[in-house]
Design a protein that fits this description.
This protein is mainly beta and about 850 residues long. It is built from eleven helices and 39 strands. It has a 22-stranded antiparallel barrel. The longest helix is centred in the middle third of the chain and has 22 residues. It starts with 14 loop residues before the first helix and ends with a strand.
Length: about 850
């Protein structure tokens, strides 16, 4: 995309990409010859140079033999992006959760994190200012951001574990020895209010401070019509951040940077949009829900202290030492059933209190045609997670009704009673607390159980009679207590318990230690050929525990001690994993503006434990390993066309994937981790064309085909899935245009940015696709988004005004279907993309 300076590489099997790719490849030698004759300073429409540190060296992005997307500060401004989920729209092959902050996850080339378990690790490593960010800390505001680099494919050599699919590197602006400041306000519909302030002050010729503040608030895109709801507005946004950094230039060769980061989220949880007959609507595009979650919220309180020490030993050798302590508390409570039906109520709470101590010592050597970087890393992470599943007694009674239905109908069928007659007997019943339904069940029980027949006689009522219905209503819990006691089923209890909350908690603790040592050597053999090789040894040690505590609801009903999870005292587990990963890259420079490269790289994600499945103490999930072969071409042609082309094949062993699973006799479906193998082949193409001095055009496109084979598992409906071999293909592209006419108004110039984003929908290939998906309007529709921004800035860049619009065609993209209650209660939930939004930006540079 033109404005987004993308730095992946090309080869796509979409028709346009394939034609362009073949044409460029076939004409490579001809283009090289023509360039030699036309590379003059007279061409004013040249593509700008972009600097990256993807290889822990400062380099021109076009000299780096990797597939990289580099998103600059200008790109972030033009696209009104403030979170990783925003830039995912403009980076095919990269995805990031849009709504959730504390439980967000990243995906590169179709590989994503397994689930929210603290016992596992993400497949995409995310760094902020060189420091690794664990799970719940990954979604941070882009306040005063210099650029964001997205490295695709395994990056195990330089970035270590959890870089199996790739790396996201967020690089904020560092303090500078000069004075600058700006304030910015963004206002839009849905009560969008975003304010940003930055000030950099040089207090002396060797000491500077830099402060930035940001506040981002917005109302929800979905209307909760439940008048009794109490809690933060579901889907609302309230995210604030601050960063204070100090730079001390101790000597010409030594500098020290200290920083403090503060991040606060206090908002409504992303709404679970119900798509069942019991929800407000089965069409998510209505954007109206009726959720009743108690105290729905998402909050995070996060702080970090960091130190970065740089030293140049001589002209060849330099070093860097970094150290950071980051800590956070997170809580999220969401509506898992998407309804206001008390008999189907289910919510989950995820609470986490964790910290990480991250350190890296790095050495760099550069002399002539040799460039070396090496170092050691050490991190210590401590985690505490409490996962709560909360249901009402009304819900337990409904689930008990379902169990009784199965038993009674099964018994009648075994005795040759036809289904039509079973229906006439009032089965299946809807809910045992409805006197009519309970009367039908008691009547059927009385047919085979004399004790139940005796209970009916005591009530003075005949089976299937109106008198029995009236007697049940008049006697309250009597019949329920009698049957529950007689059958030994404590889950049969009366309606006096309505509204009582039943909570089940799984408490996890973890102590994780990670070590790494790496070396990476780059040699320019001659004017044309260069070679890079690197190795890294990683070791991960994990101590983890599970504890399932007594339910508060069990006190008045002591017979109920197990419903969703069995009670369990603390269970401890320990294990370690290690891996040697590396890369080898050969590159050929046709000339200074044309490069071909071939690389082989490996990546690794440590094994771990499933926080919701204590059985993983015995069988931890296996480490995820990736091997990637990549062929790429990068070129700046005629000083106006930038081309990046890559074709790759990734082989994944023991890929960790989260699925919703309901095993036999389980209360509800829960997310578990399964392993599988995948073969991913694809291509990426990036074109940036400075068509004229005022017009810039861009294209990014990706094609990906995935072959998967998963281990068998129980799906959310409780069915054993053995058809686990799947094939899927995905296509996406982004088109962009930037026009900066030479026309001036009031000593200022205009700039128009337009982009169109398309992504193919591949949900039909999901291994755990629910049948209800076929009844949801737009569930299999492709994602499409048209966005634009018109800005005016004074020639001295002091003032800037802009109007913008996102998703101008108001296209709805439906999220995935799932939820803990999908199978057990028949209440799946989904999500929906943001509607058309518009707003204005006002910025003043001091």
């Amino acid at each position: 995309m033109a404005a987004l300076q993308r730095d992946t590489t090309i080869f796509s099997r979409t028709p346009i990409a394939l034609c362009i790719g073949l044409a460029l490849t076939g004409a490579l030698n001809q283009a090289s010859a023509q360039q030699a004759a036309t590379e003059t300073e007279q061409n004013k429409a040249a593509i700008e140079t972009i600097t990256v540190t993807a290889q822990k060296r400062v380099q021109n992005v076009m000299d780096v033999p990797l597939a990289i997307d580099s998103i600059t500060a200008t790109d972030l401004e033009e696209t009104s992006s403030v979170l990783l989920g925003d830039i995912a729209d403009y980076t095919p092959g990269f995805k990031f959760s849009k709504e959730a902050v504390a439980q967000a996850s990243a995906e590169i080339r179709g590989i994503s994190s397994s689930n929210i378990s603290t016992g596992g690790d993400p497949s995409v490593a995310i760094f902020y200012d060189d420091f690794y960010l664990p799970r719940a800390a990954q979604s941070v505001l882009f306040s005063d951001m210099q650029r964001i680099e997205i490295l695709k494919g395994p990056q195990g050599t330089l970035f270590g574990k959890n870089a199996a699919a790739g790396v996201v590197n967020m690089i904020p602006n560092a303090p500078a020895l000069d004075d600058e400041a700006f304030v910015k306000a963004t206002l839009g519909d849905y009560a969008l209010r975003r304010y940003e302030l930055m000030g950099n002050r040089a207090l002396s010729d060797n000491f500077a401070l830099r402060l930035n503040l940001m506040s981002n608030q917005r109302d929800a895109y979905v209307d909760n019509v439940n008048p009794d709801y109490q809690g933060e507005e579901l889907g609302s946004v309230n995210h604030r951040s601050a960063r204070l950094a100090a730079l001390w230039q101790i000597t010409e060769a030594t500098k020290l940077q200290l920083s403090y980061d503060w991040d606060d989220v206090d908002q409504g949880y992303a709404p679970g949009i119900g798509i069942s007959p019991y929800s407000y609507s089965m069409n998510p595009a209505d954007r109206r829900i009726e959720n009743d979650v108690v105290d729905g919220h998402e909050w995070r309180d996060m702080t970090a202290f960091s130190l970065k020490l740089y030293h140049d030993f001589n002209e060849q050798w330099s070093g860097k030492l970094i150290s950071s302590k980051r800590q956070w508390q997170v809580s999220g409570r969401d509506d898992a059933d998407g309804t206001a039906d008390k008999t189907r109520y289910l919510d989950t709470i995820n609470f986490e209190d964790s910290d990480i101590f991250y350190n890296e010592l790095q050495l760099n050597y550069q002399h002539g045609n040799i460039n070396y970087v090496g170092g050691v890393t050490y991190s210590k992470e401590k985690v505490y997670q409490k996962t709560s599943l909360n249901i009402l007694a009304d819900t337990i009674a409904r689930l008990t009704t379902d169990n009784l239905n199965q038993q009674l109908i099964g018994a009648l069928q075994q005795n040759g009673i036809p289904d039509e007659m079973i229906g006439q007997l009032g089965l299946p019943a809807d809910h045992i607390w409805q006197p009519t339904d309970w009367a039908s069940m008691l009547s059927v029980m009385a047919m085979v159980d004399p004790s139940v027949a005796g209970l009916l006689q005591m009530l003075g009522a005949e089976p299937f009679s109106p008198e029995l219905v009236a007697a049940i209503g008049a006697t309250g819990d009597l019949t329920y207590d009698a049957i529950g006691s007689g059958l030994g089923v404590a889950e049969i209890f009366g309606p006096s318990n309505a509204g009582k909350m039943w909570s089940e908690d799984i408490i996890n603790t973890g102590d994780f230690t990670s070590y790494g040592i790496y070396s990476d050597l780059d040699i320019q053999l001659n004017d044309n050929w260069g070679f890079t090789a690197g190795l890294r040894y990683s070791r991960d040690e994990k101590d983890f525990s599970w504890e399932i505590t007594e339910r508060p609801f069990a006190a008045p009903l002591p017979g109920i001690t197990e419903f969703l999870f069995p009670l369990m005292p603390q269970l401890n587990a320990s294990d370690s994993w290690s891996k040697l990963t590396g890369r080898a890259v050969a590159r050929y420079n046709v000339n200074q503006n044309n490069m071909l490269y071939l690389s082989y790289s490996t990546g690794y994600k440590s094994g771990g434990y499933d926080s919701l499945d204590p059985r993983s103490a015995i069988t931890p999930f296996e480490p995820e390993e990736v091997a990637n072969i990549e062929l790429g071409y990068k070129a700046d042609l005629w000083q106006s066309l930038r081309v990046q082309l890559v074709a790759y094949q990734m082989d994944l062993t023991n890929r960790q994937r989260s699925v919703s699973s309901k095993e036999p006799d389980a209360g509800v479906a829960i997310p578990i981790v399964i392993n599988g193998d995948q073969d991913i082949r694809g291509g990426e193409l990036v074109l940036d064309w400075q068509a004229t001095q005022t017009l810039k055009l861009g294209l990014i496109t990706e094609y990906r085909k995935t072959e998967s084979k998963w281990q068998p598992f129980y799906n959310a409906d409780g069915d054993l899935v053995t058809d686990v071999e799947k094939s899927s293909a995905a296509d996406s592209y982004t088109l962009a245009a930037d026009w900066a006419p030479e026309y001036t108004l009031a000593n200022g110039q205009f700039k128009l940015h337009v982009d169109y984003v398309y992504e193919e929908n591949t949900r039909a290939d999901d291994p755990d696709l629910l049948d209800i998906a076929y009844s949801i309007p737009g569930y299999f529709a492709d994602q499409k988004s048209l966005n634009a921004r018109l800005s005016w800035a004074t020639t001295d860049a002091q003032w800037q005004l802009a109007v913008w619009g996102k998703n101008l065609t108001d296209h709805d993209s439906i999220g995935g279907i799932g939820g803990f209650a999908a199978a057990a209660l028949g209440t799946p939930v989904t999500s929906i993309s943001a509607p058309r939004t518009v707003g204005v930006d006002i910025r003043y540079q001091f």
